[in-house]
Structure formats: structure tokens, C-alpha cells
Sequence to fold (185 residues):
Amino acid sequence: MELVVFVLASAMVIGGAIGVVVRSHPVHAALSLVLTLFGVAVHFVAQEAHFLAAVQVIVYAGAIVVLFLFVIMLLGVDTVDNLRVDPLKIQRPLAAVVGVAIVALMITAIVSTRELGALPAAEPRATNTPTTASDPDANIQDLAHNLFSTHVFSFEFTSILLVVAVAGTVVLTRRQRTKPDEGAS
Fold:
């Protein structure tokens, strides 16, 4: 039974992911993303992580995809744009320069992190001891140490992705809209 659930959920995830990339209509791509997120939620349920499954459905499949759909409708990207016309003439060369700079910064961060070596490990706590009043921030400290030492590259890469998403949103909202021919009626 577990194999059947795994295969069906994996088919949902892969089919939805392919749909996100292949679909030309943005609303259909967002609905394919919902299918992908539901498939991931099924994987969470199969691993008995019910809270994560609920969060996956409520936050990601619910709120985030609704936000995507709101932005799609707000920007009006349901029509095909001519990619040969640049609303800002400098945007492609500037994008190339920014892309090269981001790659250079990431390479520099990776090299400098490897030169520093591993950061000293935090004093281990017993995992079965509950957080007490004397140490109310122990979980937060463990999370911060893990996030900013072991997974610092992933954390920085996520911040770069968010900055790129914000810049892309600004460029999309600043594009010039073409009006239909008024004399054709």
C-alpha cells in the first residue's frame, strides 16, 4: 500500500511540475503548481508528518498560490507579450551584469566559507530534555546555529532568489502597456 501511495504522489508531483514548466497560460501553470504541492502533502502524510502536510496545503497550496493568481490577474499576464520589444532599453545588458555579479558573489562566498573551515559546533543538548524557564531560547538558538552555520549557503541562496523575484516583479509592473487600435472599430 505504501508503494502505491508513493507512486501516485510522485506522479502528482512530477506531472504538476512538468505542467508548471510546459503550460503557456500562467493560470494553468499556477494550478499545476497546486497539484505539485498536494502531491508533496501526500508524501508528508505518508511519512506521518501530518502538521507539515496541513501547512503545505493551507499555506502553500492555499495562500501562496492564491497570491500568485492575484499577481497574475493584477499584472494581466494572461496575454502573450512580444519579447523582442524591451520597455527599458538597458534592462538586458543590466540583467547580464547583475547575473554575472551574483554568480561572482556566490563563488566568492563558497570559496571564503571553505577557507574558514567548519564553524565550531554548538554545545550539544540532550534532545529529550524540554525547554525550561532557565533556557527559554534554546530551540531558537539551535535553529539559528543550524541555519547560519550548517545551511548558510542555502540560506544565502534563498535570499538571492527572493531579491531576484522582487526585481522581476518591479520590472513586470513597470512595463508599458500597449493600447488596442482605437480607430479600428
Summary: The CA atoms of residues 58 and 109 lie 35 Å apart. The chain has a mean pLDDT of 78.
